[in-house]
Every structure is written in structure tokens, then in C-alpha cells.
UniProtKB/TrEMBL annotation:
Belongs to the eIF-2B alpha/beta/delta subunits family. R15P isomerase subfamily. Substrate binds at residues 17-20, 60, 203-204, 229. It catalyses: alpha-D-ribose 1,5-bisphosphate = D-ribulose 1,5-bisphosphate. Transmembrane segments: none annotated. Reaction proceeds via a cis-phosphoenolate intermediate. This is Ribose 1,5-bisphosphate isomerase. The keyword Isomerase applies. It holds the Pfam family IF-2B. The active site is at residues 124, 193. Catalyzes the isomerization of ribose 1,5-bisphosphate (R15P) to ribulose 1,5-bisphosphate (RuBP), the CO(2) acceptor and substrate for RubisCO. Functions in an archaeal AMP degradation pathway, together with AMP phosphorylase and RubisCO. Its EC number is 5.3.1.29. One of its GO terms (molecular function) is S-methyl-5-thioribose-1-phosphate isomerase activity.
Amino acid sequence: MDDLNTTAEKIRTMDIRGAGRIAVAASAALRDYAMSLKSLPLSEFNIKLEEAAKTLVDTRPTAVSLPNAVALTKRHNATNVYDAIDEISKNAEKFITNAGEALEKIGMIGAQRIHDGDVIMTHCNSHAALSIIKTAFDQGKDISVIATESRPRRQGLITIRELNDHGIPTTLIVDSAVRLTMKEVDLVVVGADSISVNGALINKIGTSQLAMAAQEARRNVIVAAETYKFSPRTLLGEMVEIEDRSSDEVIDAEILRELPNVKVKNPAFDVTPAEYIDLIITEVGAFPPSMAFTVIKDYLGLELAV
């Protein structure tokens, strides 16, 4: 359990960040933990497995990739512990392999939406979104990127380093410059932490700002998202919880103690309505937001909703 708790803490503190990376880390941690329980009877094994799954899922409430990865990894129909561990190990290997392959497929599908000469705006640090941009560049398209700083964690600095190392011309802007800069942009490409059944996007705080500015400027917004980032539980009317993080990410705790009449809100995500999104690029194809239910039904299974 120590290794699993270590992974959970790294996810909670964002040492492991990004919805895809969180999902892969959780799947691997749950597999490894299950393998350590082979001496238990099946009933106790299942109890311990559920406790471990809850420990992982509770670390980040918004990124649906995490509970989806855990649910897909832990499910088994075995009648003994050894078969259960075997099923769980196979589930994890399949999930991890598919997650890696999904990025390449998303890149190939999404790159078709990028034209020679395009200026692309992106937000935060999304492997899926960057896969589209890098693939288009590798195809020889003359593109450039405008990346937001993405306060307060400044994940945009990770993005500009990745783009720089790939040789892609990139401009960094502060988040509040999005609307001013949108007139220079041809296309917005962002990632996803969760996508609800109505096609709404839950992503890094500030994403809705990009989408609204793009709508005003008549620029298309495409979302890059593996299918496991769709939220089955929204089928039952459950709302995706928006994570509030520590004020320490925004202002030094010592300064805040000197300001007794000030409080800090630090929501990590916001919701972009489906009508601001033109297309969602997944590893199984490009879909309008209105087809979110089909993606959940066909590629995740409705049993994950209960």
C-alpha cells in the first residue's frame, strides 16, 4: 500500500499532472497493489482493492480519467485471487497500451484540421492537444503557436518548452491577453479533463475564456480527448465536481495572514458549454459535442455510470 499511497500523493500534489498521465499512473499503481494481495482470500482481496481504488480516485475529483482508469482496471469476474490478479493485470496493460496509442491516433486525426500557415492557440499542458500540433508540424505544415501561461500553476511553461524543443515557433502570453490576441489566431486546440454527456468540456481554469473569445472572433475550437475522459456518471445527472485547490498556489500564506479581510478562491477547472466547441478529436474519430453519449456508450460502457 505504501507505493500506491505514494502515487496517490503525487497525483494529489500534482507531481503527476495531466489527465492522461494521472490515469496511467493510477492504473499501474492499482495493478501493482493487487499483485501484492495474492495471499488473501478473494472476499478480503476485493475489500482491499476497493479501498485502494477509493484512495486513488479521491485525490483529484474533477479529472474523470482517474475514476475511469481505476474502474476499467479493477473490474474482474474471477472466483479466486490468482485469476482476479491476472484479469486486473491484463486490464491495466490494455489500458496503458491503449492510452499511449491514443495520443498518436489523436495526433493524426486532429492534424487534418490544421492548415499550412495556421496560428494555433492552446491552454495549459495537454499531451493530446500537443500531439495534434506536433503531428501537423511534422507533416511539414508551417504553423506557429500562442500558448497561455495558465496561472496559477503555470503549466504553459511546460508547453512552451515542449514546443520549443520540437522546433515549433511559439509565443507565450498571460492568460488575460487571450481576447486581445485572439484576432491573430486561426484555431484553438485544447485538451480535456472531463467531457460530460451533453458535450460540455471541463478543463483547466481559463479554458472557457478561450472558447468565448474564439466564438466572438469566429474561430473554431477543437478539443483533444481520449475516450476515457468522457464522464459516464453524468448520464445519471451527476455533476462533475470542480476542484478547489489551496490558496498557497495563488498567494504566499504569510502575505495572506496579513490580510484578514481577504480570502482566495482557486478553482482548478471551469466548464465550457458544448455550443462553444466545434469538434472533439478522440482516438476513434472526430465527433461533435452532441455525440458524447455515443462515445460513452460505445467505448466506455454504460456500466461505468453505476
